[in-house]
Amino acid sequence: MPDTNRRWLLAKRPQGMIKDSDFELVSGPVPEPGEGEFLVRVTDLSFDPTQRGWLAADTYLPAVKIGAPVRAGAVGQVIKSNHPDFKPGQMVQGTFGWQEYVVTKGMTETGPVTVVRGGVSPEHALGVFGVTGITAWFGLTDVGQPKAGDTVLVSGAAGATGSVVVQIAKALGCKVIGIAGGKDKCAWVKDVAGADACIDYKSENVAAAIKALAPKGVNVVFENVGGEILEAALMNLALRARIVLCGGISSYNAEDLADMKGIRPYMQLTVMRARMEGFIVLDYAPRWGEGVAALGKLMAEGKLKTVEDVQHGFENCPATLRRLFEGKNVGKQLLKLTAPPLPVV
Ligand SMILES: NC(=O)c1ccc[n+]([C@@H]2O[C@H](COP(=O)([O-])OP(=O)(O)OC[C@H]3O[C@@H](n4cnc5c(N)ncnc54)[C@H](OP(=O)(O)O)[C@@H]3O)[C@@H](O)[C@H]2O)c1
Q: Which residues pair with 27 in a beta bridge?
């Protein structure tokens, strides 16, 4: 077992796109678990756009403190344990952050450490059965409430959440229009994720393209991007449309309000008697099992394919987070640090 623990600490609050210099890579001894604690070696890290917000300011969680490890979801293996409920060798999941080893009593910043179910890979634990899949499932079904025959518009459709939303909506009998950046991603959204159409926002007029594909308007908008893409969606609503405000990545690097993208045609909500509603996946913690079961069923039926973009090397944490904002990922963005099974003590 290595005797050093590397950690990426937040050095300063990022301005605009994150830079390596916003973080500091430090090495120290591997921590020893005390009474009632256990030691986890992190094997896989999840990368999520919301991390950018956590670095900047208090949001639905307090901002990461300067000098603290960068907050991130992760899977790891229990290496040593003085805790009655966690055994060496077990694979566990929690908000362990950008660090190779972590000592915990079983509670992390976003909730309890959980044991990864047997047969579930770290990629699936963090992706389709983690925040990504649960966001897609409850955001679409609970907030968006699509009915068979509805037209569902999904932005960020080649990303982790969007690509799952596309497939759930198809499985529910909807017509699905994706929006993604670039011809290759759009081809993937149609050919692999199974959308009926995909609009390349980098080369097409999005509002005109939606109108051509859905002349009667869209019933559900699953919004991951915001700004001009949300404006184009608002200009093409069907009566009583539901807009699921999942995310707005186009503004996550904005430095202040003036730098944020607005939503000018908001009165379309009134005109079309539409509802726009935000949600935070953490609120669905009590229903997590229900979501996992529904997603597992779709996978077993061959209706849900998962795609992960797996980078390697702990030193690449900042670059991997940047990939989300550079549009480099297709599917769930992960970073693999090491592969289990690991020697345990
Ligand atoms: N509400 C919740 O509880 C919750 C939970 C999870 C995620 N989310 C939100 O869901 C959204 C998707 O998250 P994810 O984890 O699935 O990430 P993701 O979609 O896999 O990755 C981000 C993607 O966003 C697109 N993007 C980046 N910058 C953009 C810009 N300026 N304009 C347009 N598109 C841009 C890129 O795709 P292209 O190449 O296609 O541009 C990129 O690949 C995010 O907004 C996130 O904050 C919300």
A: 6
**Alpha-carbon gap, residue 182 to 178, rounded angstroms:** 12
Residue whose CA lies nearest to ligand 1 atom number 30: 250
73's tokens: 């979801």
Cα 225 to ligand 1 centre (Å)? 6
Say what the pLDDT of residue 261 is: 83
Nearest atom in ligand 1 to 332's CA: 20
Q: In this predicted model, what pLDDT tens digit does every residue of 266-314 receive, in sequence order?
A: 999 999 999 999 999 999 999 999 999 999 999 999 999 999 999 999 9
Residue 149 above 80 pLDDT?
Answer: yes
19 Cβ contact partners less than 8 Å away, ≥ 6 residues apart = 318
Label residue 56 by pLDDT band (50, 70, 90): very high
Residue nearest to atom 2 of ligand 1 (CA): 280
Q: Is the pLDDT of residue 191 over 90?
A: yes
Quickly count: other Cβ atoms within 10 Å of residue 277's Cβ.
12
Ligand 1 atom nearest 280 alpha carbon: 3
Pick from 155, 224, 251 the residue to mutate for probing ligand 1's pocket: most ligand atoms within 8 Å of its CB: 224
Token pair listed for 239? 């009566």
Domain ranges in the chain are 4-124+307-336, 131-300
Q: Do 44 and 21 form a contact (C-beta atoms < 8 A)?
A: no
Q: Is the CB of 181 inside a 6 Å radius of any atom of ligand 1?
A: yes
> Which of 3.40.50.720, 1.10.10.10, 3.40.50.300, 3.20.20.140 is the CATH number of 131-300?
3.40.50.720
Minimal-distance CA residue to ligand 1 atom 46:
247
Question: Which residue has a Cα nearest atom 20 of ligand 1?
Answer: 159
3-state secondary structure of 98: coil
pLDDT at 345 exceeding the cut of 70: no
| Assigned CATH for 4-124+307-336 | 3.90.180.10
pLDDT of residue 181: 98
Closest ligand 1 atom, residue 333 Cα: 20
